[in-house]
Amino acid sequence: MKHKIILFSLLLIFPSVLPAQKDSVTIRDISYVSSSETDTYRKERCKLDIYKPGSAGDYPTVVFFYGGALEMGEKYIPEAFKSSDFVIVAPNYRLSPEVKNPAHTEDAAEAVAWVFKHIDQYGGSKDKIYVCGHSAGGYLTLMITLDTTYLAAHNEDADHVKAWFPISGQTVTHYTIRKERGLSMKIPLIDTYAPLNHARKGTPHIGLITADKRYEQPGRYEENALLKAVLNDVGNEDVTLYELQGFNHANILSPAVYAIMDFINSDCSK
Fold it and tell me: What is the pTM of this model?
C-alpha cells in the first residue's frame, strides 16, 4: 500500500462544529485491573473512561491512548470522536519516574485485554475493536501490536484487533526508556523495546500516521517510514503510512481522528 499525503479542510481542523451524539453518556474511572490488586499506584492509575454514543449496542469500539512522553498526561476522549457512532475507551496508565519500562506497555495491554472481555457490557463489540494512540500513546499502540507477548499474557490475541493506528509514535525504543538507562534521548536505539524489532507479517491493518515531516518531531516521520519499509520487507503488505500535510506533532490529533473514523466507517460497511 502506498504512502499517502492527506490535506484536510477547515471543517476537519475545527471539529467543534460537529455535535456529539444526543443520547451519549460517559462512564468514568472504571478499573481495568483485578479487584485483588494491592499496589496503590496501580489502583490509582489503571482506570479508564468509556464514551457510549447511544442506547443501542454492538458499536465499533476505539481504544485511545494519550501522549505525554510516558511521563505525564491524563486519560481523555478526543472531541472529534464524539461525532461518531463508536464506543470510545480512554485508559490511563502508570507514568515514569514512578514506574520503569515496561510497566507502561503492560498497562496498555491490560487495558485492551479488559476491553475484549467487558466491552459488550457497555454497548461495544468485541469483534470490532480498533486501537490508536498519540505520541507516547502511539508508541504503546505499536508495542502491543507487534510484540504479541503483552496481550498473550492476558490470553488475548493482538491480531483479533481490527486495525491499529499509531499517531506520531516512536518506532525505535522510546526516548524516555533510553533516559531511564542513562542513554542519549537523541540517538536512536533498536532493542526489544523498539516496535521495529518486532516487525512481523500477518497483522491486522496498521495505519501509521505522522504529521508533516517538515514540522514533526526530529526523525519521527522517518522512523515511521522505516517501520513501513521493514514491515513490507518481512511480507506485511497491510500497512499504510499517512503524512498529514501542514500539521505538526501537537496539532495532528484531530485530523488523525477523522482519518481513523473514515477507515472504521469504511471497514464496518464491508
Answer: 0.94
